[in-house]
Write a structure and sequence with these properties.
Layout lengths: L2 E9 L8 E6 L7 H11 L3 E6 L3 H7 L1 E6 L4 E2 L3 H15 L3 E6 L2 E10 L2 E7 L4 E6 L1 H8 L12 E5 L3 E7 L2 H5 L5 H8 L6 E6 L9 E7 L2 E3 L3 H13 L9 E5 L7 E10 L2 E9 L1 E10 L1
Parallel strand pairs: 2-3, 4-6, 11-12, 13-15
Antiparallel strand pairs: 1-2, 1-18, 3-4, 4-5, 6-7, 7-8, 8-17, 9-10, 10-11, 12-13, 13-14, 15-16, 16-17
């Protein structure tokens, strides 16, 4: 009977039982894709990761092989699983930089000490900017007023490995009360180049934060979405909401009672954005074994 060791870690928080939950299986050797997907459904977290051990030489050359699953599908990239898995691997090996070999390619995570606490920051792929969406079309799909969507910055699809539609909501209260039919959103997204919607408001709960964010998808509401935060960092830099390489705090997860802090930055060079980084902290909360 296989016994699979796992670590549960809360990501994008310095406090246990907040942030975004992640299960990291540190040895997924021999598991089929179907078994990984079934285990991900069993954990029922927004994502579960599986480390496929390599030799020291291969790890040094290619990075740690990691696969990421939601309850429904395998993802090429996701932010909090990347940071959380690197955090667990750092605890095992002690390196200050961990490179993950994901389906989207290599993603390095560098660790430092800030305010006396460990801090990890991943560098995501350079962004790709896609479709600019019409306020009226999206508002109709969400069944909200177009006036509730800001008109001084665009609704823009951005990808650093996963295509998010960044939707700027004018008022914090609107975003806090946001409720929509997810199937309508899926129907809208199917006609676009986006996979998920990421809602942001420049009005925040924490005065230190620049954006308040929410991400609702088929597994409910995500407390912290590092992949979307990277896309948002690129969006901020491209449209002048943040200065080039300025670190910005995004607050997320407040509505789910799992507050999260995501620190993002990106550089704008001429008409392009590069060097997208997303950082934060994490807390280990449990270890155990799964057997079947």
């Amino acid at each position: 009977m296989p016994r699979l060791a796992f670590t549960n870690i809360d990501v994008f928080t310095s406090r246990a039982l907040e942030g975004n939950q992640l299960a990291v299986f540190t040895d997924g050797s021999g598991l089929t894709t179907e078994q990984m997907q079934t285990i991900a459904r069993e954990t029922n977290y927004s994502e579960t990761t599986f480390v496929i051990p390599r030799s020291f030489e291969e790890t040094k050359e290619k990075g740690h092989r990691v696969r990421i699953f939601t309850v429904n599908e395998e993802l090429p990239f996701a932010g909090h699983p990347t940071l959380g898995t690197a955090w667990v691997l750092r605890g095992i090996g002690g390196a200050d930089e961990i490179t993950l070999d994901l389906n989207v390619g290599k993603v390095p995570v560098r660790f430092s000490t800030e305010d006396g606490q460990p801090f990890g920051e991943m560098r995501q792929r350079d962004p790709e900017f896609g479709q600019i969406h019409a306020r009226e079309d999206l508002a109709r799909a969400l069944r909200i007023s177009a006036d509730e969507i800001a008109d001084d910055v665009p609704i823009h699809t951005v990808s650093t490995g996963m295509h998010f539609v960044i939707v700027p909501i004018r008022k914090l209260t609107t975003l806090q009360k946001l409720s929509f039919n997810y199937s309508n959103a899926v129907e809208y997204l199917a006609k676009t180049d986006g996979k998920f919607l990421y809602f942001v408001s420049r009005e925040t709960v924490d005065p230190k934060a620049r954006l308040h964010a929410r991400m609702i998808f088929y597994n409910g509401e995500d407390p912290a979405t590092g992949s979307a935060a990277g896309c948002t960092a690129a969006w901020l830099a491209m449209h002048g909401v943040a200065k080039s390489d300025e670190r910005v705090l995004i607050e997320q997860g407040i509505e789910t009672k799992r507050p999260s802090q995501l620190f993002v930055r990106a550089e704008k060079k001429s008409d392009s954005v590069v060097n997208v980084r997303v950082g934060g902290r994490a807390v280990e909360v449990a270890r155990g074994e799964l057997y079947f």
